[in-house]
Design a protein that fits this description.
The chain is mainly beta. 2% of the residues lie in helices and 54% in strands. It is flat, with a radius of gyration of 20 Å. The termini are far apart.
Length: 185
């Protein structure tokens, strides 16, 4: 048993007789009230997300997790397909579990998939990915007086703000945490 202060993003806990994954958490200490932990939990049984408030001294039961390195293969109507590079075992994940990670997944992208009680619970992307620009408007001459940016579309369909010198067909590095442009690849 751990205290609510020990909760971290990605942990699995037992809550209301269900196993839940912590999607986000904040420790709050309002002025004249006792400290508490505000956590966003996703139920593995129902898939629903809920916001829960724990007292900072409340005890929670941590559930053991297993992390597997998988590679993204392809997407079809049944979901997103991932392959284990050692055993070639295929794992299919639904779109609601993949979430915003779909904007950064191209063939052979390595990801860490966290399993709780044999069921996939969370996807962790690498810190940066290299994506190809497929659609980029031309820069207008004279737009370079300040740090002017333009919106381009990447091979995954994700739109991002980049500097004017980025052209169609170029590979760029993108930070997966917030989807920000980092540099040319």
């Amino acid at each position: 048993m751990a205290s609510a202060n020990d909760l971290r993003k990605g942990m699995a806990i037992k809550y209301n007789n269900d196993v839940c994954v912590v999607l986000d958490m904040q420790h709050r200490t309002p002025g004249n009230l006792r400290a508490f932990v505000q956590a966003s939990l996703r139920s593995l049984r129902s898939g629903r997300t809920s916001d829960v408030r724990f007292s900072s001294t409340e005890r929670v039961e941590v559930v053991p997790m297993e992390t597997r390195k998988l590679e993204y293969s392809y997407k079809d109507q049944s979901g997103y397909h991932f392959i284990d590079p050692q055993s070639y075992e295929e794992t299919v994940l639904q779109e609601d579990l993949v979430g915003h990670a779909k904007d950064f997944l191209v063939e052979n992208t390595p990801v860490d998939v966290i399993f709780v009680e044999g069921k996939a619970a969370l996807i962790e992307l690498p810190a940066t990915v290299e994506l190809t620009v497929v659609e980029s408007p031309e820069a207008v001459r004279g737009d370079s007086a300040t740090n002017v940016q333009k919106t381009v579309t990447l091979e995954t369909g994700y739109s991002i703000q980049v500097p004017l010198f980025i052209k169609e067909g170029e590979k760029i590095k993108v930070r997966t945490e917030d989807g920000a442009y980092l540099s040319r690849a």
